[in-house]
């Protein structure tokens, strides 16, 4: 299917006039100091690239996104592949998408519980929840007149077919409420997911929930969040206060949050043309009273150079991360 889609893309791009492109080449440095004396510290240096082609032709949208990574020390980690490659057709009330794509569900800052459609791309910044791998799928989406829509998605990963039924939309209550209800089923489990975001003035309230049923067990994870923005303070910059709480009835591996965690953070938005910001945060595990600390800054210069600095500290390791990229 990918080869057929690629030939379609080449043909359309050759005759299309409105082609939009963007991309970046970024150098990464990561150092992890483990507190356990039997675990060696880890240092990684690698270069990544990202290139996207997008065009609209009548009611068709075509998008191709190629990502690559080169690690001189561990060349087996290097790759160059399509991360997104799809064609989308829009009708009056229906949209059909075929190919490999990325979707974003939920809005929590630390751990997007509802964001289960794509696998994480841990070869890049492993703690960046927005780094994802595309999923091969076909999506049918029907739009109602009341700003809601219903979607059926069939995706494939290895030999496993996953089916999603999603109802989502926006309600004109207060300053706006966005919501989504999702049912997911595959050969291993059935999951029910909800995400809701409500805006009330300068306040944002968030809720995400997932319930998983397998042959042997049933477990859930829930998260609630509150975000308050103070506009144009401290030299006309914005300050955002973030508070989130996560609860689960089972311990899960490879997640940012545990069974009973509270997150508190503060974000400083510079309100410049390059969208620079700094965020400081702390996660407290209510079970063993342990703490995790995080600090991150994102800065863009001249609209083409972007830097990211990140620091994470917990009971197991200290992690330092720096990236510097050229964006075009």
Structure characterization notes:
There is one protein chain. This protein is mainly β and 328 residues long. The chain has one domain: Porin (Beta Barrel). The protein is 4% helix and 63% strand. It contains one helix and 20 strands. The strands form two sheets. The protein has an 18-stranded antiparallel β-barrel. A two-stranded antiparallel ribbon has the order 6-7. The two termini are 30 Å apart.
Secondary-structure topology with pairs:
Blueprint (H helix, E strand, L loop, with lengths): L1 H14 L3 E16 L7 E16 L2 E11 L8 E12 L3 E8 L17 E2 L11 E2 L1 E9 L4 E10 L2 E12 L5 E9 L4 E11 L2 E11 L4 E16 L3 E12 L11 E10 L7 E9 L5 E11 L3 E9 L3 E11 L1
Antiparallel strand pairs: 1-2, 1-20, 2-3, 3-4, 4-5, 5-8, 6-7, 8-9, 9-10, 10-11, 11-12, 12-13, 13-14, 14-15, 15-16, 16-17, 17-18, 18-19, 19-20
Please supply descriptive tags for the structure shown above.
mainly beta; Porin; two-stranded antiparallel ribbon; globular
Structural class per helix/strand content? mainly beta
The CATH H-level homologous superfamily: Porin
How many β-strand stretches?
Answer: 20
CATH hierarchy class name: Mainly Beta
Radius of gyration: 21 Å
Shape label: globular
